[in-house]
Amino acid sequence: MKRRLLDIIRCPIDGSAFDLTVYKSRPEELDPQKCALVLGESADKSKIEALYGEEILEGLLVSRRSGHVYPIIDGVPRLIVDAANTYHGFFAYYGNLAPQDAEARLSDERSPASFGLQWENYRFEDRTWFKDLKLREREFLYSMAVTKEALPGSLLLDAGCGHGTLTAAISGAYGVEAVGLDFTGAVGRAQANRAKFAGGYAPFVHYVQGDLLQSPLAREVFDLVHSSGVIHHTPDPRHAFQSLFDATRPDGRVYVQVYRKREAWVGVPNRLIRSVTTRIPPNWLWALCVCGVPIHTALVHLVAALRGERPMLARCTRRERALSLFDNYSPRYQFRYRPQEIKRFFADMGMEEVQDTTLANEARHMIAFVGVKTADAIPAAASRPTTERTPAVA
């Protein structure tokens, strides 16, 4: 973690800024040319060194308002409301430092375990959703409706970053400072491997463990907010969208991609299967998905042949196919939408320049929109959300 993150993160319980205690750190080497591209030629060198020149490996973040505490582990701030339970070993090692209320709970307890296992089984040489990283970098420009020339110096939020490779790659390819947010422990792997994908821009890539429904982000700080295949897996997608909107600066862009509502002959069987699989322990379900790959592949090829299409599975490994199956059948929540419903999310926030940027190679399964937050858009909610949620409508 860099000290720069203190400008960006907030306590997910009371919304206040943090005081930082450092237990372990190391110096970070900075490339002057890359600093100039990301931060501008006129950026103060002593300030750059103070904000980016130290990698904090272990430490403690204390909320200024209520004293709630959160650990920094493996260079990642763990800003989940039940950090006291999840990381009890850290607190015990450093002297049981009065962690927050032990009764605090995540908004959804199965999904972090499910996605954590999913990204644990991911290998960095794998293609994500059957696409290589270079293709996903190019698709990012289309999705956000931006040019690469406009990106240097921007601050990006990648909400639901998973294994984090795209977060780092975008920083390296386009000269942006990037924050990857995910509610699973996968951010630890992302942090450890960010230099492989960001190159010399690694000092400007940050990862945070946190939940969009209990947001650990300051308001109106990001120029670009990108969330691909995430909010439909939360108990309340509209509230998750509100968190993305709240974190965006005026004139900033918000992009979301969600599952499309499918035809009944596909949707009904999927819901029936999920009514069983979402009750199976994730470890067991992963094994079933690995075993079920040949059957699923045969069905995909059959349906593609009937439609006269070529399936995307042609060159996929068994693990890549199993990850896709597990992603569909394991998470507790899976809401699906029609395009006009997602467009309404943007309209209700008063956003402008709303565009459908659904990729042609994903149009059968997904919907994606991007919009611009205007200065007179509906303001962020006056108070932080509680941990209780109103369920979304499927």
Summarize the structure.
It is built from 13 helices and 12 strands. The chain is an alpha/beta fold and 394 residues long.
Report on this structure:
The protein has helices at 32-39, 45-52, 83-86, 88-93, 110-121, 133-144, 165-174, 186-198, 237-246, 264-277, 282-307, 318-329, 339-348, and strands at 18-27, 54-63, 69-73, 76-77, 155-159, 177-182, 205-209, 222-228, 248-260, 336-337, 352-356, 366-372. The chain has 394 residues and is of the alpha/beta class. The strands form 2 sheets. Strands 5, 6, 7, 8, 9, 10, 11 and 12 form an 8-stranded mixed sheet that branches. Strands 1-2-3-4 form a 4-stranded antiparallel sheet. Helix 6 crosses helix 7, helix 7 (165-174) runs parallel beside helix 8 (186-198) and helix 11 (282-307) crosses helix 12 (318-329). The longest helix is centred in the C-terminal third of the chain and has 26 residues, at 282-307. 41% of the residues are buried. Residues 381-394 have low confidence and may be disordered.
